[in-house]
Each structure stands twice: as C-alpha cells, then as structure tokens.
Design brief:
Layout lengths: L2 H7 L6 H39 L8 H14 L6 H19 L4 E4 L4 H12 L5 E4 L2 H9 L5 E5 L20 E6 L2 E2 L9 E5 L10 E8 L6 H7 L3 E8 L2 E9 L4 H10 L6 E8 L3 E2 L3
Parallel strand pairs: 1-2, 1-3, 5-11
Antiparallel strand pairs: 3-6, 4-6, 7-9, 7-10, 8-9
Helix pairs in contact: 3-4
C-alpha cells in the first residue's frame, strides 16, 4: 500500500479550532437572543404602563407573583450554572422592570451590620434601584411611610430585642410587611439573611400564605411558644412596649384570628391585643 493510500484511508479528526469557533458562534447567537427577549419584555412593560395609566394607576409591586416566579425558576433549573446566578439575574430583571414602571428606592436597616443587608438588597433589587441606609428599623418604617411608594428592608431577628419596631406597623395606614427574603431558601445562599420587605399597604397582589401579627400583652407566659407552635406559628421576636410586651408573630394564613386569640386565652392572656401587620408567601426550600 502506498503512502498516499495510507493517508487517504486515515480517519478525519475534527479540528479543535473549528469546534471552538462553532461553539462561540452559538454562544453569540444565544446572547443576542437573550438581549432581544429583554427588549421585547421592555416593550410589553411599555404597554402595561399605558394600560395602568388609563385605569388610574396602581402599585407596581406584585410580591405574590414574584414569589411564584422565583419558585418556578428554582424548580425547573438544571445544569451546571449555579442557581445563585440564575436567581440573581431574575431578581435584577424583575426589580429593574418594576422600577421602570414606577421609580422607587429601597430603605435598608443597617444597624445590625451593613455588609449582609447591603448584599441582600443588591442581590434582590440590583444596582439600578436607589439604596438608602438607615440606622434602625424605625427610620426605615418612617421613610417608607413618608414616601410615594418606596420599599423598606428590615432584619428578622429572633429572641428579645430592645425595641419592638413592628409595633409601628400596627396602625391601618402604616407600612406593612409584603414579603420575606430570600424567596428561595437554601444552604449557603449568597444573600440568605432573613429579612422582611415593607411597603405602604397594598390593595392587591399581597400573598397571604403566612400572616404576621403584633401581639401586645401585659406579661410573659412560658406556655405561649408551645401554644403558638401547635397552631403552626412562631414567635419571631419580643420586646417591651408601653403595655408590657410586644410580640412579633408568624402564623399560617389559613389560621383565623379567633383561633390565635384562643392560644393567648389558654396561656391566661385574655387581654392580648392582636394587630395584623402584613403577610408574605411561603418560602420555597431547596435542600441541596
């Protein structure tokens, strides 16, 4: 067999250079398609703004829809791209397009540590939305109350606290809790600090999977955590107020206020005063 014949019979090996070039063409095509889809999304938002203007406006925040979107993203995600990245991208998309509809700022309580709250705010709201710091939850609540539609972020801390900031949410026209962050709960979340999102009272689109109450009581009863826990609830915080103690309660949305009152009665606290101060969607948990 001649050398020429051996050469012609040898298997053809694809050139690595050609393969890489083709893959880069695919990546560029996908990147362009993603950009075009974002532009198309913005055009839909333009139409949404026009329709809302004709209908008399309304809040741009849809915490129930946002929670559902994040849950569906976490469920369908696959592949080597970290869920952290995907969640972060969608949070920026959602928050920025909300900002385009109705500009707003996020007021953040940094009294417990600036870094973690800043990370959480930027992860969930991006860099387009203005970020305003306050030393303490009271400053955040007052800023939201006096705004034209800003949001607030406050830490959720368990145990005893020096001041019941949530007591300021009790009046009907006061800001209310509309979401709990992060929407997707998982180990090693890059912005996993538990936080509540506050806004002026929403007329619609607030999820009621979990309802948050402030309870004013004259004294503590050791039986109370167990009685609240038996109802599927939790005491998130307690601190002194002018009546004695103020409790921050989280309970299932299906639980009636009368059932909650019965727990206080069983604990010997018939004088307990309950005020609903907000609600939020159930968190979606990713275990691994």
């Amino acid at each position: 067999m001649s050398a020429d014949q051996k050469s012609s019979d040898a298997p053809v090996v694809d050139s690595p250079v050609v393969d890489l070039s083709a893959l880069r063409v695919d990546i560029d095509r996908i990147d362009q398609a993603m950009h075009e889809l974002l532009i198309e999304r913005s055009e839909i938002i333009d139409r949404l703004i026009a329709i809302k203007a004709r209908q008399g406006g309304g809040s741009a925040f849809r915490p129930s829809r946002e929670a559902d979107m994040m849950r569906r993203i976490a469920i369908r995600h696959r592949g080597l791209l970290p869920l952290d990245t995907v969640e972060g991208i969608w949070r920026i998309i959602i928050s920025t397009f909300t900002y385009v509809q109705a500009p707003y700022s996020v007021h953040v309580d940094t009294a417990g540590g600036d870094a973690m709250m800043r990370d959480s705010a930027r992860f969930h709201f991006g860099f387009t939305v203005p970020f305003i710091t306050h030393y303490g939850a009271v400053g955040v609540i007052d800023a939201v109350r006096n705004s034209q539609g800003d949001l607030g972020m406050v830490r959720i801390d368990g145990g005893a606290m020096s001041h019941p900031w949530w007591h300021r949410l009790a009046p009907p026209d006061a800001p209310k809790i509309i979401a709990r962050l992060p929407f997707v709960e998982r180990p090693d979340h890059p912005a996993g600090l538990p936080a509540f999102v506050l806004s002026l009272p929403l007329a619609e689109a607030a999820s009621r999977d979990v309802v948050i109450y402030e309870a004013s009581i004259t004294r503590w009863r050791d039986a109370l955590p167990g009685l609240i826990g038996a109802l599927g609830g939790e005491i998130l915080g307690n601190a002194g107020n002018e009546l004695g103690l103020s409790l921050l309660l989280s309970v299932p949305g299906a639980l009636g206020q009368e059932q909650l009152r019965q727990a206080f009665t069983q604990a010997g606290l018939t004088e307990a005063r309950l005020s609903e101060i907000g609600s939020h969607a159930l968190r979606h948990e990713v275990l691994a």
